[in-house]
Every structure is written in structure tokens, then in C-alpha cells.
Design goal:
This protein is an all-beta fold. It is about 0% helix and about 60% strand. It has a four-stranded antiparallel beta sheet, with no helix packed on it. Strand 1 and strand 2 form a beta hairpin. It is elongated and about 60 Å long.
Length: about 100
């Protein structure tokens, strides 16, 4: 079974057993999150259910593995001939999820 879910403003195509990194979710490590699917399909794509915006009665259960910070992204600005330089760093808070079941 394949599902398309939306978490943190992003869409992910998932199967049972997948591990995905999403924007930070408010759940502790070891807890379970339930999300409705936007699209459900079997492995060969013959039976497809498309939701408006989600499929009624669909459940995707995700287990929170850990909360972590992503790699640092450097933001460097410079204006030539003006002696202006700025260097900043940013690390996004992320959540690692494992897909437990799709129904």
C-alpha cells in the first residue's frame, strides 16, 4: 500500500516501513502520530483512491523515532564595493518518523 501524506506543509509518498524526516512535530520520541492520507494506492497502481482533500477513513500511523536538528545552512550576503558582508547560519528543527501502518 502506498499513501501520500501532508506534514508540515510538505507532501510525502510513503510505504510501510519507510523512515522520513519532516519539519518538527509536537510529539515525544516513542509516541505515535495518526495522519489522514491525501491519496491511497496499492503497489501496482490499479486501485487508487484520491481524496478531496483527504481520503475519508484513511489512517497512516507514524512512530516518532527522534527529534533532531538538521545540518547547518549558511546564508552569506555581500554587496560589492561597499564593505558589507553578513554571514549567518540556520539549523531547522526536524522529526524522524517511521511509517508503521497504512489503512
Amino acid at each position: 500500500m502506498i499513501a501520500v501524506i501532508e506534514l508540515g506543509g510538505n507532501q510525502f509518498t510513503v510505504q510501510k516501513g519507510d523512515v522520513i524526516d519532516v519539519k518538527k512535530q509536537d510529539a515525544e520520541a516513542g509516541k505515535t502520530i495518526t495522519v489522514e492520507a491525501m491519496l491511497l494506492s496499492d503497489a501496482d497502481g490499479k486501485d487508487v483512491k484520491i481524496g478531496t482533500p483527504t481520503v475519508e477513513g484513511s489512517k497512516v500511523e507514524c512512530k516518532v523515532i527522534e527529534q533532531f536538528k538538521a545540518d547547518k545552512v549558511r546564508v552569506f550576503k555581500m554587496k560589492s564595493k561597499k564593505r558589507f558582508m553578513r554571514n549567518k547560519g540556520f539549523r531547522a528543527s526536524m522529526t524522524k518518523l517511521e511509517i508503521m501502518s497504512i489503512a
